[in-house]
Amino acid sequence: MGDSFLGKIQASVPKQTQVYDVLKQALIEAQFEPGRMISIRALATSFGTSTMPVREAVTRLVTERALEALPNRGLRVPTLSQAEALDILRVRAVLEGAAAGLAAKEITATEILELERHELELELAVKRRRFPEAVQFNLKFHLGVCRASRSQTLVLLIESLYLRAAPRVHRNIRLIPGDAAGQTEYIRAAHVAILNALRRADPKDARKAMEADINGAVNLETQSDPAALYIEPKARIRLRRSASSSAKPVNRRTSRLG
Fold it and tell me: Under CATH, which number does the domain 82-247 receive?
């Protein structure tokens, strides 16, 4: 990540609020690698602000355990143990399952189309081995379902879990088994099950499908990390098929991105 946030600060909104929102989103999307050192002064330069709004923003993020404060006044992106990651996944399954059940009764056709688009973009990113983009689209899919629940309380709780779990994404995204086609298939299987339940306005099936998706991600946490590296292609992704084609039912598999 180039860490350039210039142009993202608007005069109409308090700077510390904007800095917090931008940093929070970058952390949730795992744009900062675990263990990375972060400088308040460097962030201030990147945002084009003084250090004051950055300091206020990172203080909130430290409180939320998205960043660690070091004895020398530095900051670090935390690492996450397997036990912590599994605990977060278990809680996510409960909360996101509840959110999906509520969403089945509230979601609009426009929102379902948006979820289909995120799923298609996720599949294409995985096929192209563009893993940072895959993380972002997977996040958009899951949070899109949660926001359709119309429960702000659930959304805030779930976002806080994603913020805590972000350091583990760098590890797990490399561990999805199989080739690109196989990886795309099992991610698609879980998300299509969720989409089908939402289209039917079936709260019970929506909850079960979401829980199954997240519980499947637990399998990634039990694998050894080969520390595989990836090279992100520079070519831009082009959508070659309509989002509606993601509605085709497919068989589920046991390991998923979640």
Answer: 1.20.120.530
Beta strands 68-69; 37-38: pairing state: unpaired
Tens-digit pLDDT string for the chain (258 aa): 456 565 566 666 788 899 999 999 999 988 888 899 999 999 999 999 999 999 999 999 999 999 999 988 789 999 988 899 999 999 999 999 999 999 999 999 999 999 999 999 999 998 888 888 888 999 999 999 999 999 999 999 999 999 999 888 766 666 665 676 777 787 889 999 999 999 999 999 999 999 999 988 877 777 755 443 333 333 333 333 434 444 444 444 444 567
Looking at CATH, the fold of the domain delimited by 15-76 is given as: Arc Repressor Mutant, subunit A (1.10.10)
Q: How many C-beta atoms lie closer than 10 Å to residue 185's C-beta?
A: 17
Burial class of 64 by CB neighbour count within 10 A (0 to 12, 13 to 18, 19+): middle
- Structure tokens, 224: 């050894």
The pTM for the full model equals 0.78
